[in-house]
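Hi there. Long-time user, first ticket. I'm pasting a complex I've been working with (about 1071 residues overall). I'd like to know whether the download I got is complete or cut off, because the file seemed smaller than I expected. Thanks.
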Amino acid sequence: MGMITYIARRIAMAIPLIVLISVLCFIIIQLPPGDYITSYSAMVAARGGWVKPEVLTALRERYGLDQPVYVQYWKWVSGFPRGDFGIAMSISNTPVRDLLAERLPLTLILNFLAFLFTMSVAIPIGVFSATHKYGFADYLLTFIAFLGISIPGFVLALVIIFMSVFVFGSSYIGNLFSQEFVSAPWSWARLLDFLKHLPAPIVAIGVAGFCNSMRIMRGNMLDVLDQQYIQTARAKGLKERIVIRKHAVRIAINPIISRVGVYLPEILATEMLVSIVLNLPTIGPLFYQSLLAQDMYLAGTILLIIAVLLVIGNLLADIFLAWSDPRIRFS
Amino acid sequence: MRCGTWPTRIRNRRVLGKTGEILVEDVNHKEKLLSVDNLRVQFRIPQGIVRAVDGVSFEMARGESVGVVGESGCGKSVTALSLMLLHPQPEARIAGGTITYHPEDSPPVEISSLDIRGEAIRAIRGREIAMIFQEPMTSLSPVYTIGEQIIEAIRLHRNMDKKQARELAIEMLDQVRISAPQQRVDEYPHQLSGGMRQRAMIALALSCNPSLLIADEPTTALDVTIEAQILSLIKDLQQRRQMSLMIITHNLGVVGEMADYVLVMYVGKVVEKARTKELFRNPLHPYTRALLRSLPRIGSKDRLLSIPGSVPNPYQLPQGCPFRGRCEEMHESCRDEPPPPCYVEGDHLVYCWNYYNARETTG
Amino acid sequence: MDRPVDRDSESRGLSAAEEYRYLSPRQLMWRKFLKHRVGVVATCVVILLYLTVIFAEFFAPYDKTTSHPDHLSAPPSRIRFFDSDGRFHLRPFVYRTTAERDPRTLRFVYDEDVSQKDFIRFFVRGDEYRFLGLIQSDLHFVGVRDGELFLLGTDQRGRDLLSRTIYGGRISLSIGLIGVSILVFLGALIGTISGYYGGIVDNVIQRLIEIIRTIPQIALWMALAAALPLGWPSTYVYLGIVVILGLIGWTGIAREVRGKVLAMRDADFVHAAEVAGAGSGRIFFRHLMPNISSHIIVSATLSVPVMIIGESSLSFLGLGIKPPMTSWGLLLNQVREVQVLMHFPWLLFPALFIVISVLCFNFMGDALRDVADPYSK
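Hi, the file is complete. Here it is re-exported in full:
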């Protein structure tokens, strides 16, 4: 079959999915009673202002809010190829595109780093736990794993803040940059500052994922170690270390890769929560603010972007899996 | 039937002593390859301790083939695995006895005392002693091509570069009668049929020219027709390479075809040891007799005979002879002590009170 | 569990075989459950928690709205057994505290008055309440006769945190149960339909599930919660939150159920029933459901933590439960600002309750899973 065909097929399947997701997001946007303009004028009124009725009508027309639902949908969606995602009314009419461009890169970096952290810690520990089954370390790690998945993301963020300030005396909490570096151009100093701010959010985001992945890796390893081909590998005279690394882990890892599609939303969700608590300049807090302000177009677009990111992430994971496990390629 | 005493008849090659030690070797003698003396392997699991192998002794000479038969759970696989120190860690351990391997041009190695993770045993695995397993489906790693897996073994033990190793791998695939070996070498196990996979396993095992090949139920998972092909292949390769073969099976038919002599095992112990022809002609131990009797015969319409009772609980092995309770010729003494070995007619060995007592009474 | 290389089925021991033969499935399951010690402990804790919040009026030292103006943002009372003279008292006590404003930081500092010992008693008379609107009483499980007992400290309005946490537990834990009921009902129903009828129906439902699962749950929750009309009263919001949580979580159970139904649909016993003339409904209720029910129970138990965490997260963000109701998440909303957290760290206690209940439900679910499906890892 070949990789190219496989990739092409998966991409083709992803597109209708994204379309359907956009429909779902649009439905969510429409949920609050009244329409966008009603909330807008309510918000303005709350601030003690007043909008002229002509302006309201013009806005309604612009956004097609007097049109049937599917037309509105089309208007919303048709702006996408142009890069027009609408305007964030609650943030002094900044184009959504600009807001996203500001925050998207950091969001991706943070999530990616958190994902790396999770996997690079969870997998070796899972392997260790499996090869030292029923030992003290194994029981301890199992308990920690349970604990880890029982702590909600925001609680963990709070605890980390608490510990960073009280236990470690660190001041690199909240935001990803210190005051002086927030709008500064990139430099080594800024990078260093950034790195110092990283551990807290990454640990907070990574913990739940780490605990799950570790348990799953352990389970997979135990399954694989029972298999005959491990015995064959040993019978060849290979060092145990190589047997584990080259044969056992190589196969045990596949189910984890195939489940990346499940992890990604979780990591993203945790990242959003943690970012809100720690006030990081990523998409999460923006989404949150937009919801509080009932700026539904902003919120809906962000929702869509998040979903698309995940679809892409899934796709990449599937491709990686196909490369890693030859059995999938040939089916 | 009498249990003979020393000295017994001089067979073609050697004179056996009271306890089976070799006293006189003939000019045509074959070298000793492996000797196992009172091997005991235990499993420690939460439910208790299982004596999987409980005092097994035998010898193998170069070029000889031994068949090990017995029901599931009798310890034959564990015996084989422990020869290469592959018994499952951490549950199993060698609790006693010795395994000694005699390489061609070096001093004998006491395998049982080697470090399980050490270099010494790893040098033996694959190189001197190789093993093929029962399930060809799962014996090969699914994520590497069969070429890669064979080359891995070759480059581990032999000084070859990638190109040479690949050529050797193709050559091996050809020897095991796999068609179009140049293509197959780059295929994945799941692309091959069961029979072909087992052939690939054999190619892998023989790639470093071992002196002993252990085959643990190599054909149990295969069709009867494929089984015949594989067995004939193994036999052919064995003869060509003057290699020793240990074939483990529960199928007496396979043993008849492949083995020079047979070990019959029951619940961790050897109960009878004899040349294959001799065993079939003259089975001594009640268990062996029952096994042979339970084989269906072509043309016969009699009811299939099974052995009454069931295998004893391995956590509570009974005292005395392990077969007691199911044996038709049981006596009082069978309950108390396990029977010692007794030679009947040369090198036909049986562990049964009936014969031992008979020897005593007739002196 | 590992076994010797020779896979002998009889190496389980006679007693296990006997047990297997003579006990009914229910008894076997019960025994299996009891073997999972952690699960048993966890179940006890859960039961204890629910009892506590059901009888919140009794167990909480104070009413949830009672405020103590003299003790704003007070730290937890220090329980002592030894007094300032070094004497040991069997009954624990606290010193009466008075507040003073520190002139520099303008914050309250609490001094202990060593001359006033308030002994902790059980079954104390305190704030009046009406249990279930019927039984009037003022009996509290624990408290002090005079003075104040703030086992977890007070918040910025001087309300006892422990009491508010217990009352908050009512909301958090009940949402857990009700939400799960919706979730299980929806999930089981849709999953069974999907698995049983197959074809287009199955395809459509699977696509739908895929779409919903692609978007992170928290984002969906947040979006839907934000969609609740701002003017709604507390109870409507409560119901809204419950429905939202259930509405988005059913996908997990639906998938599991579908898988099981698919596996069983082609089983011989179903064919036999069909051939015998049984209709779909009968097949469903008498044949399929009993086989799936144990898995559903396990999934349900494991979904409760998701509900609890979901509600807590939403309320923490201010998108969930509204006052005058209170929940653990809402209580934690106070610590959103780092300043508050730094100066009044005891306000973090409700998080402990969240973690404990989630942990216990997870252990319970794990134990139940061992019981229901001994072959799963």
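A couple of notes from our side: Residues 286-362 of chain B form one domain. The two ends of chain B are 13 Å apart (CA to CA).
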